[in-house]
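Notes from the 1:1 (GR / supervisor)

We went over the backlog. Supervisor wanted to see one worked example end to end before approving the batch request, so GR pasted a single chain during the call. The sequence is below; no edits were made to it. Supervisor asked that the structure be written out right there so they could see what the output format looks like.
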Amino acid sequence: MLRIDKSGPENSLRIQNESELDLVYLLQVLRRQKWVIATVACAVVSLAALYCFIVTPQYTASAELLIDTQQARGLEVMPQLTGIMDSAGIDSQVQILQSERIAKAVIKELKLVEAKKKAIEENGSSIVQTVGGFLFPFLVRTTPLSDYEIERAQVDDFVDRLKVKRVGMSYVIGIDFKAADPVMAADVANQVAEAYIVDQLEAKYQATRRASVWLQDRIAELRDQALAADRAVQDFKARNNIIDTQRGLISDQQMSELNTQLITARTAVAEAQARYERVNNIIKQGGVTGTSDEVVSDVLNNDVISRLRTQYLDAIKREADWSKRYGPDHIAVINLNNEIRGLQRSLFTELSRIAETYKSDLEIARAREQSLTKSLEQLMAQAKLTGQAQVELRELESNAQSYRALYDNFLQRFMQATQQQSFPVTEARVITDASAPLKASSPRTPLIVAGGLFAGLVLGFGVGMWRERMNRTIRLPADVERYLGLECLGVLPLLPSTVATPVPAGQSAFDSSTGIMRQVTSDPFSRFSETLRSVKVSADVSIHGRSVKVIGIVSTLPKEGKSTVSANFAQLIAHSGQRCVLIDGDLRNPTLTRRLAPSSTAGLLELVFGKASLEDVSIVDRMTGLRFIPAVVPGDIVHTNEILASEQMSAVLDELKRDVDYIVIDFPPLAPVVDVLASTHMVDGYVYVLDWGSSNRDLVANTLQNAPKVYDKVLGCLLNKVDLKAMRSLEDYGSKYYYHKYYASYGRNS
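Structure output shown during the call:
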């Protein structure tokens, strides 16, 4: 709110910004601008309805695609080319469906470019285009479109009419196409789905074909690399004498066999040495004891030894029997003992021969052992060299196996790609075919009209707010308090044309009992009169706490009605029986003098300069007793402010104060001249007249800001020339000024 603060030092003026918007203010704007809002809303609704009436109805056909990865998974030949599709993949398919590639394919399939060219040839140029091309050749094109331009226009229009969206979070994609022909809309939607499936098949075929070509070249390289690696393995084996069999290397097999033979030879040596040593022990004992424990098993198996031993044992048995029977000295016993000794010598001789045989077997076994040991040592030395070579051999064999595995894998992939070319599959399939819609999808008349109504109301309210903001005039008593910080003393209604008829030239308004200058006397119970009475009351009970006898009537600009107010206010005071003097203080433009005393030859200037007395220059109204001092100006006066600020002017007013009750001075406007500023030391209070709907509040506030002494003595403001009917639609019903309409009728009909 803009207020003028008088509480600061030296009564300085401080202007604040307007208050922020509140609900009450918005409701007031809504009430004041209701017809503007209604007009704008009706205009927008009419435009919306007109648009719905003239626009061509559009029909939307819908088809649905399902991206079924499981379907392709069951039929695919190359699993690596397909997989589970995530959300980003589905969004990518939506973009593919909206791409120009699909659009061009559909346009080509349905021959839309040819149909457009045919329609252009049949219709030709319209009258609007012809006239527009003639008048505005730089804006309207008259040359025919080329095939490329027609195609581009069709593609752009196609993309604008096509809408592709994912259905929720599923793998279903909805395809909507809008056209003026419902059958065409359905055909295009179905063709978009078909073109997408064909495009996917073509893309997979091309990808598989490119993969086959690449695999074929790669297979040739891998085959050469695998052959070279195998050849390197074989050459290395030949250089290092490495022979490999199914059971391993030949050298390893030979080493294993020699090791087995060496173990067997060492066992045979041990057995031969044991037999030989046993026989030698028997021989060293000097003979044969005759027991089976004293001979080795090989001796027992000898036929000669067995026979001799049998004879020897039989002889021993007989010798014992005969010695017992015949005595030891018997010849037969002695002969038998000799025979026994002969058998022992035969056994010893045979044992010696067997011992030599065992010795020969032992030497042969030792020789075999030594031979096998030497051969094994040679193989072990060769195995060390072979083991070192096998490290490099294993690396060569690993490379060869890797190249061979890659070659086999790529060969298998190539065979799969070849099969995939002859049997392409796609993940997409149509689950809902588009059909011709029965109802138009646009325009949505109820929605558009409702939206137009809402937009119209919003726009109308905006226009109303703009008018409120742009209208910087004072239209309400509350505006006086809000923007000027002054009290509004009342509103003066705009008088009817019959009352406001100007007085004929050369005739005084005092000579007539009616007219605008006689409003308070001709209609004393009017609102005009009651408002001026409230000014009189405000002057009598002034908040300044001092007597108010000299009252100045001022305004911001000319033609705001201050002279009319001055005349009627002074007549009101005089008509009530009090002594009042009305002075025309506008020495620049004495409007009041031209109306009340057009034939006067002397006035305020003569009175101030002492050239004439009060009775000589004043005119007395016979009806009210009002004394009027005109301002007779012979020409342009430059320093009028000095005249009003002079001591002579103060002396005149002081003298009048002793003889009258009130002095009403009609001052010039405050904004264009400074005369009012020169009168502040003489005037007790000012009544500020504002032209309703014309006085700019910024100008008034700025004028008062530049005249703080005047502002400090302002009793209040009057809103003049008020259209009461219009004001009732603007004024808040809670305002005290709203009830002023009962002034004229109160008490008259009781």
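Supervisor's comment: Residues 331-422 form the longest helix (92 residues).
Batch request approved.
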